[in-house]
Amino acid sequence: MRIVLAEPSRIGQRLMTKMLADGGHEVLAFGDGHAVLDCLRNDETVDVLMTSFEIPGISGLELCWEARLIANSHRPIHVIAMSSTHDRDRLIEALDSGADDFVTKPPVPAELFARLRAAERATRAARELLRLATLDALTELPNRRAFFDRAGEATRRGGSEQPVSVLMLDIDHFKRVNDTFGHDAGDEVLRAVAEVLRSRPGLAARLGGEEFAVLLEGWDLLDAYQEAERLRQLVLQRPIAVCGRVIPVTVSIGVAEHGHGQTVDRLLKQADVALYAAKTGGRNRVVAAQSAVSGDDAVAHACESVPHHETIYLAC
C-alpha cells in the first residue's frame, strides 16, 4: 500500500520507513503537518495515513480530521494514529477525530503489519463501494452523482486563469431507436457514444437515459465548442450495426462556460438550455449558451454556423 507517514523525528521517520518498506509498502515520510495535508489532497493514490500526535504545523489530531474530510469526499483513506503513551483519553480523542486505528510507538512489526492488512481489506471494500456508487453500470462512465461532485469542485476552483466549460449531449431520436430496434440496440448505441466520449479529453459522464455530459477544465467557450463539434462528427462517423442493418447515430450538444461566482447548477442549466436549442433547431448540431458569449463576435458567429444533417433510420 501507499502510506503517508507523519513523524516529527528524523530517526523515527527512518526507522518506520525501513520497517514499512521491508513489509512491501511504499512510504512517503513527512515531518510537517502542512506538507502531509498537501500530499493527501493532491495524491489520490494514498491508501493510509499514519500520524503521530506531535507534528509541527498541524497537529496529528487535526490531520486525522482533515484526512477524514478528504476521504469522505471521494476516496478512502485509512487513518492510523500513533503515540508513545498509552493514554486512554488520547486514544478516544484520536478515534473521535477521525482515526480508524491506534498504535503505540515504536510499533511491534507483527502487530503493525496485521493492522495494515486489515486496513488494506477495509480500503479495498470502501473503494469498491465507491466505484459502484459513482459508476454507470451500462456505459462504465461516471454517473450523475460523480459528475456533479467533480463539476462542483472544478467551478469552485475555476477563475479567469482557469476556465471551466461543460458540454451536455443528447442522442437524437433515441426513443425511436428503442422502439424500432429494441432496448438491446439502444444499449449498444449508449455504449458506442460512451466509448467516443471516453476517447476524448475531459471527464465524461452519463447523466441518465440518453443524456451525457463532459467537464472540460482549462477550456474556454470557443475551445469547448470546437471540441463539441469534433465529438459530434466522431459520433456521426460511427454507425451501429443491428440485425444486419446500420443505425446512423447523431447527437445534439449544448456548450456553456463557467462564469465568475456562478454555481454548478447554473452552469449546467445554461448548457441544458443550449442543448434544448440544438434539439429544437434541427438536431445533430452544437449550440453554445448565448449568455456565456458576452459579446464575443467570433464565438457568437461560430455558434450559429453549424450545418444541419438529416438522420435516416432503417427498419430491422
Summarize the structure.
The protein has 316 residues and is α/β, with parallel strands linked by helices.
Largest sheet: 5 strands, parallel
- Provide the low-confidence segments as ranges: 291-316
Number of strands: 12
**Order of adjacent strands in the largest pleated sheet:** 2-1-3-4-5
State the assembly state of the protein chains.
single chain
Determine the fraction of residues in helical runs and give it as a percent range.
Answer: 40-55%
**What spatial form do the alpha-carbon principal axes imply?**
elongated
Count of DSSP-assigned helices: 11
Structural class: alpha/beta
Radius of gyration: 25 Å
SSE order = EHEHEHEHEHHEHHEEHEEEHEH
Strand content: 15-25%
Straight-line N-to-C gap: 52 Å
> What's the average pLDDT?
86
Molecular structure report:
It is a single chain. Helices cover 48% and strands 20% of the residues. With 316 residues, it is α/β, with parallel strands linked by helices. The strands form three sheets. A five-stranded parallel β-sheet has the order 2-1-3-4-5, with helices on both faces. Helix 1 links the parallel strand 1 and strand 2. Helix 7 (174-181) packs across helix 8. The longest helix has 26 residues, at 109-134. Residues 291-316 have low confidence and may be disordered.
Task: Provide tags for this entry.
single chain, 316 residues, alpha/beta, 5-stranded parallel beta sheet, 48% helix, elongated, disordered C terminus
